[in-house]
Amino acid sequence: MTSLRAVLFDLDGVLTPTAEVHMRAWERLFAPYCDARGLAPYTSADYFAHIDGKPRYDGVATFLASRGVELPRGAADDAPGEDTVCALGNRKDVIVNRMFDEEGIAPYPGSVRFLDAVTAAGAQVAVVSSSRNTPAVLAAAGLTERFAVVVDGNVAAREHLAGKPAPDTYLRAAALLGVPAAEAVVVEDALSGVQAGAAGPFGLVLGVDRGVGAQALVAHGADRVVADLGELDAAVLDTPARPVARPADNQGEQA
């Protein structure tokens, strides 16, 4: 008997290198924005600290706050621009979709091997992503048919689910698979994502270090970190599930 029966994959940076495209898209949005306003220059460190893994508008708001900039939230149908948080987020969406069209997308080979291994072993799988572009990315990468359950930014908005670092979207995916969270693996490359895994009663949180740093992933909740999922196989499913803290345990720690 395996301890774990489901694997819940983040998309960008875990299954596909779209995180790299997103990083460059955010830079194309915020580097000139900061330069024109005399703000501290935008760097890749800002992506990991303020944007990575979060819903798009939350990432915009968090980055702007780091520069002391306050904008009205606006609405999701705001025209791409700079007047509201949503307008900036929609402008980024235009940039990244143009890049997808021009550059294409291919999944990480190691991630596909790991996906093959766990599904062959009988595990159920799902994609859990903050991105509203998830269907297009899965289709472009040839992965659509591999996942019957997808909980993305569109589902989160429709069902009013809190985004990462809250565990809600991962919990929803486990529920749709009919698997208790304690028997599910969360696979993430973002700090907010491993925080989401650690915040829920999930059996295992796997971190994939695509640049944020192994120590940071562990510090934020990853039980184990690899540089590439190709390092792993279905033996991951035999990992004993992490113990779920009981109220008495928490009280003892606080004392």
UniProtKB/TrEMBL annotation:
Family note: Belongs to the HAD-like hydrolase superfamily. CbbY/CbbZ/Gph/YieH family.
InterPro entries per record: B-phosphoglucomutase_hydrolase, Beta-PGM-like, HAD-like_sf, HAD-SF_hydro_IA, HAD_sf, PGP-like_dom2
Record-linked PANTHER family: 6-PHOSPHOGLUCONATE PHOSPHATASE, HEXITOL PHOSPHATASE B
Cofactor(s) for this UniProt protein: Mg(2+)
Keyword terms, alphabetized: Carbohydrate metabolism, Hydrolase, Isomerase, Magnesium, Metal-binding, Phosphoprotein
Record-listed E.C. numbers: 5.4.2.6
Native source species: Krasilnikoviella flava
Entry GO MF terms: beta-phosphoglucomutase activity; hydrolase activity; metal ion binding
Catalytic activity: beta-D-glucose 1-phosphate = beta-D-glucose 6-phosphate
Pfam families from the UniProt entry: Hydrolase
UniProt-recorded name of the protein: Beta-phosphoglucomutase
